[in-house]
Automatic annotation (TrEMBL):
PROSITE patterns: CENP_V_GFA. This is Glutathione-dependent formaldehyde-activating enzyme protein. Residues 5-119 form the CENP-V/GFA domain. Belongs to the Gfa family. One of its GO terms (molecular function) is carbon-sulfur lyase activity. It comes from the Bacteria. The keyword Zinc applies. Keywords: Lyase, Metal-binding, Zinc. Signal peptide: none annotated. Gene3D superfamilies: glutathione-dependent formaldehyde- activating enzyme (gfa). The lineage of its organism: Bacteria, Pseudomonadati, Pseudomonadota, Gammaproteobacteria, Salinisphaerales. The keyword Zinc applies.
Length: 142
């Protein structure tokens, strides 16, 4: 049976679902993700379009970056950033959205499997995950 995650923003205005398994779950250290999500490290899952039921854009704030193929989407009422879309064009849902829906815990099956663009890091992370200097492990150039 496929797992379904019911996700929402803090105020409940924006809801979405993700089901099955993500295409990837990782920590990204690239400067573009750090800038787009305003974090030191983006911990997130990437999903195939057929595995997510995204909210109607009319319910969201939409922020597109200048000169990059990256957009983030969130709730205009409470401000929670729900997901982004960027290379390779798949929805990327931060782990924090899943933690919020799961009593503060990341479901085990969504645990990150590697670090991308580790050479660009601003924070060293001492774990046993593979640390890739670029995005080639998931088909991204970098």
């Amino acid at each position: 049976m496929s797992k379904t995650y019911e996700l929402s923003c803090d105020c409940g205005h924006v809801t979405m679902t993700a089901s099955g398994e993500p295409k990837l779950s990782l920590h990204c250290h690239c400067s573009s993700c750090r800038d787009l999500y305003n974090v030191d490290v983006l911990s997130a899952t990437g999903w195939a379009h057929e595995n997510v039921d995204l909210p109607d854009e009319s319910k969201l704030f939409v922020h597109k970056t200048d000169g990059k193929q990256m957009t983030r989407y969130g709730c205009p009422k409470c401000g929670l950033m729900m997901y982004g879309v960027h290379k390779p064009g798949i929805p990327v849902i931060p782990h924090g959205v899943f933690r919020k829906a799961n009593d503060g815990e990341l479901p085990d099956e969504l645990a990150p499997t590697l670090h991308l663009f580790y050479r660009e890091r601003v924070l060293d992370i001492d774990d046993d995950l593979e640390k890739c200097d670029d995005g080639s492990a998931v088909g991204l150039s970098g």
